[in-house]
Specification:
GO molecular function: peptidase activity
Mean pLDDT: 94
Largest sheet: 7 strands, antiparallel
Number of helices: 6
Number of strands: 14
CATH topology of the largest domain: C8orf32 fold
Protein name: Transglutaminase-like putative cysteine protease
GO biological process, one term: proteolysis
Shape: globular
Keywords: Hydrolase, Protease
InterPro entries: Bac_transglu_N, Papain-like_cys_pep_sf, Transglutaminase-like
Structural class: alpha+beta
Helix content: 10-25%
CATH architecture of the largest domain: Roll
Length: about 290
């Protein structure tokens, strides 16, 4: 599948602002399952763009020192995605639990096992995660980690309600467990907590989802899901918001420990604290 994505972000300020410094994580990744064929980034007012690479993806950054009333960022990309059968590399039968007991696993992937500010592991979270994990394991007939992750994805989709506007970017994970509702960011961070509680390295993925006419849901901006490390060394995607094993409708832009590592746009400036934010994202399928 080939997709054309346009991601527009516009800030409008009540007065003049200056010394604006911004980081962007908007460029789709290129890897075994997807290729970024074209990427263009525009900023208004114009600014010189810089970039560097992190393990999770590309980061662009720029600064505006002169006064301005608004800031508009437009990222356009064209991506080819080829993961049309997400189950082709999943072992749903073999007991592969010994892989996750190796001491070297933590040494190599501690950042995806340790707690973070957004995905803590204090006593309440531990108890919730253990209960959810136990329920998911009851739904599988094998000891395969992939089978457990498929069941966990399905259980979270069933037990938590997708409700736009019910949370915000700073909502704590404890509230998600209590009220059992949220958006894709919340579903993803709950799944991170459960996976890490079971010793499975898991990372947060930010990107886009082509919803088309297939009934899938996504935020008006970027989408979020989880990737878990499997015993064959591959990272496999699971989307509890939609009860999906990630396929070629998903376009990855950045990976990290939680949302804080992958925020599409972040910045600071000097000026009035209030601002109006408009984000518009379109994902179109291109037939060639």
């Amino acid at each position: 599948m080939i997709y054309r994505i346009c991601h527009s972000t516009e800030y409008r300020y009540p007065g003049l602002v200056r010394n604006s410094h911004n980081e962007l994580r908007l460029k789709p990744l290129s890897d075994l399952w997807q290729t970024c064929r074209r990427f263009e980034l525009r900023v208004e007012p114009e600014a010189r763009l810089f970039s560097y690479e992190l393990p999770g993806g590309a980061v662009h950054h720029f600064s505006h020192r002169l006064p301005h009333h608004s800031l508009r960022i437009v990222a356009e990309s064209e991506v080819e995605s080829c993961k049309n059968n997400p189950f082709s590399h999943l072992d749903l039968i073999t007991d592969d639990s010994p892989f996750y007991l190796q001491p070297s696993l933590y040494n190599n992937f501690c950042e995806y096992l340790d707690p973070t500010e957004r995905v803590p592991n204090h006593r309440y979270i531990q108890l919730e995660c253990e209960q959810i994990a136990a329920s998911a394991r009851q739904e599988v007939l094998s000891c395969s980690t992939a089978a457990f992750l498929v069941a966990l994805t399905k259980l979270l989709h069933r037990e938590f309600r997708y409700e736009p506007g019910s949370t915000h970017v700073h909502t704590k994970i404890e509230e998600i467990f209590i009220y059992r509702r949220g958006v894709c960011q919340d579903f993803a961070q709950v799944m991170l907590a459960v996976c890490r509680s079971q010793g499975i390295p898991a990372r947060y993925v930010s990107g886009y989802l082509y919803t088309g006419h297939n009934g899938l849901v996504s935020n008006d901006a970027t989408h979020a899901w989880v990737e878990c490390l499997l015993p064959d060394g591959s990272w496999h995607g699971f989307d509890p918001t939609n009860d999906m094993v990630v396929n070629d409708a998903y376009i990855r832009t950045h990976t990290g420990r939680d949302y804080s590592d992958v925020a599409p746009v972040r910045g600071l400036y000097q000026g009035p604290p209030a601002s109006k934010l408009d984000v518009v994202v379109t994902v179109e399928r291109i037939d060639e």
